[in-house]
Amino acid sequence: MNTVRTYIILLVVLIAFAAAPRPLAAAITTNGIGIYTGIAPNMGGSMHSFVQQQHFNTRNGIHDINRVQDGIDTAKIERPMGVTVGIDWKVIIEEHFFFRAAANYSKSVVGGSGTTAWTDNGGISYYALDCRYSVATFDVPLLAGFTIKFWDDVRFYVGGGAAFASGMYDNEFSSEDHPDPFTRKGQFRGTGFPLVAYAHGEYYFTTRYAISATVLYYGGSTPLLRDGIHADTEGLNGKGAYDYARIDFTGYRFAFGITFYFGSDQ
What we know:
Layout: H1 2-19, E1 28-40, H2 50-55, E2 81-93, E3 97-110, E4 113-118, E5 127-150, E6 154-175, E7 182-192, E8 195-204, E9 209-219, E10 225-226, E11 244-245, E12 251-263
Antiparallel strand pairs: 1-2, 1-12, 2-3, 3-5, 4-5, 5-6, 6-7, 6-8, 8-9, 9-12, 10-11
């Protein structure tokens, strides 16, 4: 609830400044519209779920699912890395304060699949377990903070806030060499309000255009969600029919972009 409250407060403040009559509106000196792209390492956090813990001997999702065993052809399951794209609007007030609203889409594109060794009989027999994880998110952060300009062509920002975030997380586990072959799929959709920390630097190559580098850190997840796919009951003696998991938005994002500025000081 605290994150929801923070988000609402920031939204109200942004709207108040945007709609404020003069002289408050007169203090808004610069507006900027930017686009950017970058990477999101380790998307989705551990991607832990009930089925993984109960049936595949892992208590921390992808972080400890990799195992090797003689006679099993395994392939390491790397943590997913994603790409992120976005657009933002910044308002710089009196050269030292800023507000920022943005819309971002991120999707895992590398990693998240491979094969591990697995046993369901106390280590008497091992089998190959094929694993796949994928995650995608859309978020709208509202941020505020401080900014300072150096040498007329370099500006730094530091701030924070919260975001409304919607996530999509899918997993799949299958084994063809198990005596009772199976496939278990999980599909999770949900929303959350992660907190966001923001650091940003810009270089103005004209009076109106700047190139930028950004580091963001998100912290938060959805509530516990139930698998949205119909029950998987074929194979594995019917076990793992339903799965439960959270979509974790926690992690860093690194982006590069360009911003167009307009306003009273341009």
